[in-house]
Amino acid sequence: MAHAIRFHETGGPEVLQWEEVAVGKPGPGQVRLRHEAVGLNFADTYFRSGLYPVPLPAGMGVEAAGVVQALGEGVDSVRVGDRVTYTGFVNTLGAYSTERLAPAAALIRLPGDIECATAAAMTMRGLTASYLMRRIHAFKAGDSVLLHAAAGGVGLIVSQWARLLGVTVIGTVSSEAKAELARAHGCAHVIDYSREDVAKRVRELTDGAGVDVVFDSVGKDTFDASLDSLKRRGLMVCVGTASGPVPPFNPQLLAMKGSLYLTRPALADYIADPAEKHELASELFGHVASGRIRIEINQRYALQDAAQAHRDLESRKTTGSSIFVV
């Protein structure tokens, strides 16, 4: 019998329940998957808490990798036995499961040299890093970026990718252990935000100029410091709200701080076009397969331990990527 983590009400990690589920046969455009590994992402907590509302009861998780078991009518993009990975949003909710039905359109076939565990740890994070480095800004050698949560899953990939492009990364972390991890993955400078003034330190490191781009996945707690770290006409990229949503503000603030640009992108809009998704995934997989980018799986959990995994994630005890082993 298949099992899945589901929740019947929104709230804290305690609402996550381990349940038997009936999977059934795939319908038109669907496949039946047997998961080998499932990704743990901060966005999962938004569904659980109700920040991202979905009809209840609901499954949990939007990223996993496994093997195709059966095909629904009209599916010709994959075959039974193919190893695949996927990520998405509401259309792939339910990844915390041993088996499931999934839309074939969401699937990405895995190259032979990418394991399912690696894929589950990097598909969402890696595609996020891919569009940040290849679509948001035309990075060139000599550019600089302030990267919050530099020791996190996305942060470690972005740092390595930036180093490949000759971009200087200033990362923020909360401990010396995380600082060492960030440096090892490409951060030229690391700021401990728990004891340093981030914007002031950025100005010192850039001879007063500020950075070209900020990647801010923290949100409310770092927004002001991020704006104050940018050079004139710099780009602020809000990519997450780990500390809560950014409060409303007058856009005139952007002019006052140097005619700044601000964007709030979402991965879904960069992988909606199958051709663009393939391009972003192919470059990502190429970097990982060659060893140019390393994927750090620093936490592994059983699916039954999803509540503890969420507690660890929200208390910032994790580094790199986290997965559930099925």
From TrEMBL:
<dbReference type="InterPro" id="IPR047618">
    <property type="entry name" value="QOR-like"/>
</dbReference>
<dbReference type="GO" id="GO:0070402">
    <property type="term" value="F:NADPH binding"/>
</dbReference>
<dbReference type="GO" id="GO:0035925">
    <property type="term" value="F:mRNA 3'-UTR AU-rich region binding"/>
</dbReference>
<dbReference type="GO" id="GO:0008270">
    <property type="term" value="F:zinc ion binding"/>
</dbReference>
<dbReference type="GO" id="GO:0005829">
    <property type="term" value="C:cytosol"/>
</dbReference>
<dbReference type="Pfam" id="PF08240">
    <property type="entry name" value="ADH_N"/>
</dbReference>
<protein>
    <submittedName>
        <fullName>Quinone oxidoreductase</fullName>
    </submittedName>
</protein>
<keyword id="KW-0560">Oxidoreductase</keyword>
<dbReference type="GO" id="GO:0003960">
    <property type="term" value="F:quinone reductase (NADPH) activity"/>
</dbReference>
<dbReference type="InterPro" id="IPR013154">
    <property type="entry name" value="ADH-like_N"/>
</dbReference>
<dbReference type="InterPro" id="IPR013149">
    <property type="entry name" value="ADH-like_C"/>
</dbReference>
<feature type="domain" description="Enoyl reductase (ER)">
    <location>
        <begin position="11"/>
        <end position="324"/>
    </location>
</feature>
<dbReference type="InterPro" id="IPR011032">
    <property type="entry name" value="GroES-like_sf"/>
</dbReference>
<keyword id="KW-0521">NADP</keyword>
<dbReference type="Pfam" id="PF00107">
    <property type="entry name" value="ADH_zinc_N"/>
</dbReference>
<dbReference type="InterPro" id="IPR002364">
    <property type="entry name" value="Quin_OxRdtase/zeta-crystal_CS"/>
</dbReference>
<dbReference type="InterPro" id="IPR020843">
    <property type="entry name" value="ER"/>
</dbReference>
<dbReference type="InterPro" id="IPR036291">
    <property type="entry name" value="NAD(P)-bd_dom_sf"/>
</dbReference>
